[in-house]
Sequence to fold (237 residues):
Amino acid sequence: MMFSELQSLLDFVPGDVAREDYEQAVLEANCLGKQTLSTRKLSLQRLSELYALDPSVPLFRVMRSLWKSNPDSQQQLALLAALCRDPLLRLTAAPVLQTPAGKEFARQEMTDALEAGTGGRFNDSTLDKIVRNASSTWTQAGHLQGRARKFRQLVRATPASSAYALLLGYLQGVRGQNLLACDWVKVLDLDELEARERADDAKRLGLLDIKQSGSLIDISFPKLLTEADKELLHGAD
Fold:
């Protein structure tokens, strides 16, 4: 997830800037403190793959807009964004999320999920590296704790991370009540009732809007999505 590097970069660069400013911060200002140009380029490449670092991409722009004012949400925001853009990390989600709270995490289940999801195209050493990196990511996000032996713990979703998870479902075309049970919400260890409670909290903070008529519910994001975003979504619908 490269959380510390992402945090350093977003703390260094003001919010409303172009992609080129992020590149300059990493390569020229060396805000990540890398010793060589090659390691700076590698870090920039990986951060761009995970998070886009481009305000024209709604996924990054919204995460960036929530970042500074919600420091307790940052690990969860980063995880959700990385899951969107990293297919290998997504393959590791089910083994982690399906592990009951307090139970030791079975590393082999993550290996098996990756092997099945990639058609066995990785050798054992590569799979082992992917599993180590993914385990580190889920630990940074708070879903796992421990070093050699890792145990599952439930994360405490915040209004900001919940709004972001609901937005990701919305961008995928999920609407209404189904948003409260979408996969992105489950990443935050929320059931449907808890997701509604966090959504109400997010509404009070102005992060989303909720309208309900009887059993019908409509969740929208007038402040997080631009008019251009809405036009694209309307065309997709």
